Model the fold of this input.
Amino acid sequence: MLRLFVGIGFPPELKLRLSLLCSGIPKARWVDPGNLHLTLRFIGEISEDVAADVDQALAKLRARRFSLRLAGTGVFGGDRPRSLWVGVERNPDLTTLRDKIEQALTRVGLPPEPRKFAPHVTLARLQNPPFDKIAEFLAAHAGFRAEPLSVEAFNLIASYPTKSGSVYEDQAAYPLQH
Done:
């Protein structure tokens, strides 16, 4: 069994810039800078046979290259924040790519993604964080904006759990068209 997701990787400079945000909240489990990415579709655990079908379906997908920009910060979880993130500016090309990936994966028999697509980069996982520190972090980084990122490919990524957190490994890259 493989635990997979589809995502967009980042260049080292962007990972470094994001990692510089990762402090100031006690007990936060910060994402390792090497694992920072934008998830397009979580797949979960599947057999190697299904993974081969997923790979074939993604390899046939056609979409244009585009640029996107990371901007702003936020939390998921409302009154019980569980995840701290950097957002992605609204981008129709990103939404189109995500929709095409969703269609390709449902065609090979995966269940549809039930959650609405909310593009973000997870910075930390939270468990009972101090609300004042969350508010300080969000206020301090509300104006965060990265340089535009040229998206020329997306990846099928495996996640391997370890005692110190997950390790991600690219399984395949799928280039986008000019």
The chain has one domain: 2-175. The chain is about 25% helix and 35% strand.
